[in-house]
Amino acid sequence: MDIDDARIRDAVARTEVIRAPKHNLHTFGTTNIHYYLVTEPVYAELTGGSNETVVREGKVIAEKPRIVTPYYLTSLEGFSASARRYFDHLLKTHGRDTPGLFYAYRNEPKGMEIVADNLPAVVEKIAADIDTRGDPLTALIKGVDELWDVALVRFIFEITNRSLEENVQQLGARGLLGVDKQGIPADARYRIEELFRQVRNGERDPRELKTELDRWDLFREYEDRFLSLFRK
């Protein structure tokens, strides 16, 4: 793995997705994934081991995937610079346009606690709790304390790849993968129309619509409609 930061390489190598969600990412809506991320405390390496485990809990929110043809920078909110660097490496390795879909993620940490028990025992307890609740969108991940969200990025990349084929099939079944003479996917046109509606109703900032039009190089086509939003 050609990552220039040895710490990131080590964190990736030591990451393990112990329990993946049973369901893939939703094709036509937002997916809320509840995660537990367990690590040995950073001081364990200094003391030769620890009977304590750090448990982080939170949500990864995956927005509805969007079809794209040019490269869109995948959106990651709530992640450290190291996690972003690792994701950049994944994009370079696997191809920036490989999926043909744009996935946006937001990390919402809920809390952290230090549990007075060793990591295998804590993992067993959390896994049993997940089974009891029967939540199909909960993940259990093992990582490195100092770079814990690198482990979260690796998990995100894996579930995205796992979901991709199903997402593409479902989008294709609704005719959203087709492109017009300008090379614009039907899904992109649909999103632009939805943004116009939301801006008109005061639900979205007009700058979001302008950004989307610019990304597709469509502002001149929609310029009159866009400016009419500001006329009384």
Please give the structural blueprint.
Elements: H1 6-13, E1 16-19, E2 31-39, H2 44-47, E3 53-62, E4 66-67, E5 75-77, H3 81-94, E6 101-102, E7 104-115, H4 119-133, E8 138-142, H5 148-173, H6 186-200, H7 206-215, H8 219-228
Parallel strand pairs: 2-8, 5-7
Antiparallel strand pairs: 1-8, 2-3, 3-7, 4-6
What's this model, at a glance?
With 232 residues, the protein is an alpha/beta fold. 44% of the residues lie in helices and 20% in strands.
Class inferred from helices and paired strands: alpha/beta
Give the tally of structural domains. Answer: 2
Radius of gyration: 21 Å
- Give the fraction of residues assigned to helices: 40-55%
* Morphology: elongated
Low-confidence stretches: none
Strand residue content: 15-25%
Mean pLDDT, as a whole number?
Answer: 86
Number of DSSP-assigned strands: 8
Q: Termini separation (Å)? A: 57 Å
What does the largest sheet look like? 6 strands, mixed
Reading the helices and strands in chain order gives HEEHEEEHEEHEHHHH
